[in-house]
Specification:
The structure holds two protein chains of two kinds. Chain A is an alpha/beta fold. In chain A, strand 8 and strand 9 form a beta hairpin. The longest helix of chain A is centred in the first third of the chain and has 37 residues. In chain B, helix 7 crosses helix 8. Classes of the chains: A alpha/beta, B alpha+beta.
Chain lengths: ~500, ~240
């Protein structure tokens, strides 16, 4: 049995090697291309950070045999697609990989080291990385500024500076890149689902919060390009990542969770520049005085006044959300509108519903979020009246509880050609008797026509196969929300910003 | 800053400019701001004017013309480096006619002596909406501009907007737009306000920290800045410089 397993593992290894070689060749080609295209404009900073994601040979310092240890999980996650080198002075072999006493023992060139050792050992480990000429490290270990160990933090900083090593962390969760198939986060896959490829990149000062949102994004089928948990930011900070993601081709929208900014002047300058290239959606933790106290112990420095941050975000063109659940949904809607290249002139919303109450709540929230209800031209009204007998044509249009798929199709197709509408909100209460699963295709077709952006609000119900409907719609790229409030908040934020681009 | 140190009042290691010095500073570094017309009355003259049973017309004659141009509607303020919050110590009184003017003066002489003042400032009354414009030096973002509508809106509702200095006209517009109480300025209750003057003022104030002297501002309060249909004026101001 064991032999069989070993053979299988070997085979898998060979397969992996082959894949890797092909990938390397392709990447080289791409790199050449990129260098050609960006010659002159490519900054040292971009290359510096890009290397984290394109790393192939990765040392895991503090690799562990025990399956629940961080050093084990990271190794396991990374070894799927990368060549990994476990480093642990107390082991000869971990998961059938040769284990090294120190990085300096490794003969191959190392692109990146992930450090997960006890805090006190980190500076020494970094020095060894420097001697081995490792250009980049991700420091997972915690126990620095955030618990008042400023001296240790200083030691670490000095070691990084001495050898010119670029570092993410410490006190972070790691990094993830769906396109480069880099999984360097320390949470096990069975507990945190990894999102598919997509246009949203996410930088987070907090690690666990970042991972939780990543999990949520995966569940909602939001595609992610890169995730960077940067913790105490002793070396690279939010400004560096913003600058980098601005140039990253796979990133269409940037999401940020921050508690505080290190260098305010630099942040203002960079945020102003980047937000003109890509939308940046930001959620700030620590907006109350009590919350601020929590950040003091959390990340090692006092967050600034929330109102000042709010002003700075507005001034620099960032889109601030007040609810965590909005962070990714706003980003997703941005991505959708940018990808489908909609030209939007205003904030006029048309609502289609099959429930009167939902129509009212949706209208309330459209108005609350600074949008207006669209007014239909008389032509459109006539066409709707002709094709939808018995339905009163106003905004919202209530297709009633006995609606069929067909009614949605008819109403939406006509409304897609109305000039006075900027976005359509379709409320779909799947519990009503005559709707069938084919509604997914109906709505997806409307969405795919790319005439106007649509969002779908569909309720949760154990009988209504809610998960199926939402998942199926999401699979087809339709942006879905569970409640009208969420939808309207996202629409309001996106339309406000799009207007200014 | 040497010169300023001589002019200002030291407080801890910081230098506080009370109203008249702050206004001098603004006149010099932000000349486009409008400051209400005012003139000074020497404390000796003030005492002499009201000493006897009758008003000393000879002394009064020195100031009569100026007072008449204000139509006797004025704010009487004690000028002293030792007073930071004038209203708290009764160092400011509003008057509407001649007799109110004299009784204000006589009731304030004691306070003026107490704070070692040498002058009174007589300033024309300005009507309109009271606003607050300020600068604060933030640890993270450097100088930030603050703007709000005076009274309960700032103090109780914390309805203030901030931007990093300097700002653009567009920023100024969004600062106004951000306030929950903005409807007051947009002409509720049939009142009109010159928002263009307000925006230009916000931009001008936000540029103060760019100057060599302004760089050392730790706090600046223009409170109130009074805005009406025709213009906006710096009615009271105070500046704290770093030492």
């Amino acid at each position: 049995m064991e032999k069989l397993l070993t053979r299988e593992l070997c085979l898998k290894d060979e397969e992996r090697m082959a894949k890797r070689i092909i990938k390397k060749i392709v990447k080289k080609e791409i790199k050449k291309d990129v260098i050609k295209r960006t010659a002159g404009s490519s900054s040292a900073g971009k290359k510096k950070i890009d290397g984290f994601f394109t790393a192939q040979n990765i040392a895991v310092i503090g690799a562990a045999r025990e399956p629940n240890k961080i050093g084990h999980i990271i190794l396991r996650n990374l070894m799927v697609n990368k060549t990994v080198y476990p480093v642990n002075p107390n082991a000869d072999e971990i998961m059938r990989l040769k284990c090294y006493k120190s990085v300096m023992e490794i003969e191959d060139k190392i692109d990146l080291a992930v450090i997960a050792v006890k805090n006190d050992f980190v500076p020494q480990v970094v020095i060894e990385c420097g001697k081995k000429r490792i250009p980049r490290v991700v420091i997972i270990s915690s126990g620095f500024d955030e618990i008042g160990k400023t001296e240790l933090s200083k030691k670490l900083k000095d070691a990084l500076d001495k050898y010119g090593i670029a570092a993410i962390g410490p006190n972070c969760l790691g990094i993830y890149d769906s396109y480069n198939e880099l999984d360097g986060i320390f949470l096990p896959k069975q507990k945190v689902k990894r999102p598919e490829q997509g246009g949203i990149s996410f930088i987070s000062q907090s690690g666990a919060l970042g991972a939780t949102l990543l999990d949520m994004a995966a569940e909602r089928k939001y595609g992610i390009s890169k995730f960077i948990s940067y913790g105490n930011a002793v070396n690279l900070n939010e400004c560096d990542f913003l600058e980098y993601l601005a140039e990253d081709e796979n990133t269409k929208v940037i999401c940020m969770y921050i508690e505080q900014v290190r260098n305010g002047k630099r942040f203002i300058e960079i945020a102003k520049r980047v937000s003109k290239i890509k939308p940046i959606v930001v959620f700030k933790g620590g907006v109350t005085e009590q919350g601020n106290k929590a950040t003091l112990s959390h990340t090692g420095s006092l967050a600034g006044d929330a109102q000042i941050y709010q002003g700075i975000f507005k001034q620099t063109g960032l889109v601030q959300v007040d609810m965590l659940e909005d962070l990714f949904s706003v980003a997703k809607l941005f991505e959708k509108i940018l990808n489908d290249k909609y030209k939007i002139n205003g904030k006029r919303i048309q609502i289609i519903t099959n429930g009167g109450g939902y129509g009212i709540i949706s209208t309330d929230n459209v108005i609350k979020n600074d949008m207006t209800m669209a007014e239909l031209s008389s032509n459109t009204k006539k066409t709707l009246e002709k094709n939808l007998p018995g339905i009163s044509i106003k905004n919202p249009i209530d297709l009633l509880g006995d609606t069929t798929n067909e009614r949605y199709k008819t109403a939406a197709s006509i409304l897609l050609n109305e000039n006075n509408i900027d976005m359509i909100m379709i409320v779909l209460l799947y519990q009503t008797p005559f709707l069938t699963e084919d509604i997914v295709d109906v709505l997806s077709e409307i969405d795919q026509s790319k005439k106007k952006p649509i969002v779908v609000v569909t309720s949760r119900s154990s009988y209504g196969n809610y998960t199926n409907i939402t998942e199926k719609l999401a699979d087809k790229g339709v942006v879905c929300f569970e409640f009208p409030e969420q939808a309207a908040r996202a629409m309001g934020k996106v339309l406000e910003k799009i207007k200014k681009i | 800053m040497q010169r300023d140190e001589k002019r200002g009042k030291r407080c801890d290691s910081r230098i506080v400019f009370p109203e008249y010095r702050a206004k001098e500073f603004l006149k010099e570094y932000a000349p486009s701001l409008t400051i209400p017309r005012n003139f000074m009355i020497d404390l000796k003259d003030a005492k002499g004017m009201i000493e006897g049973k009758k008003i000393n017309e000879k002394i009064y004659a020195k100031y009569a013309k100026k007072l008449e141009t204000f139509n006797f509607c004025a704010a009487v303020k004690i000028v002293s480096d030792n007073i930071v919050h004038k209203t708290d110590v009764g160092a400011v009184k509003l008057v509407q006619d001649k007799s109110q003017f004299f009784s204000a003066l006589s009731s304030m002489i004691k306070t003026a002596d107490k704070f070692k003042a040498r002058e009174f400032m007589i300033e024309e009354l300005v009507s309109g909406q009271e606003l607050i414009i300020g600068i604060k030096k933030d640890d993270v973002f450097g100088h930030v501009l603050a703007f709000g509508i005076g009274g309960i809106f700032v103090e109780i509702l914390k309805d203030i907007s901030f931007r990093a200095c300097p700002i653009t006209m567009e920023d100024a517009e969004s600062m106004i737009d951000e306030l929950k109480s903005k409807k007051i300025l947009l002409g509720a209750r049939g009142k009109k306000y010159d928002l263009d003057v307000l925006k230009k003022t916000l931009v001008t104030v936000s540029k103060l920290p760019l100057t060599k002297e302004g760089m050392k501002i730790e706090e600046l309060d223009i409170n109130p800045f009074i805005l009406n249909e025709h213009d906006g004026k710096v009615v009271d101001a105070r500046i704290v410089f770093e030492g």
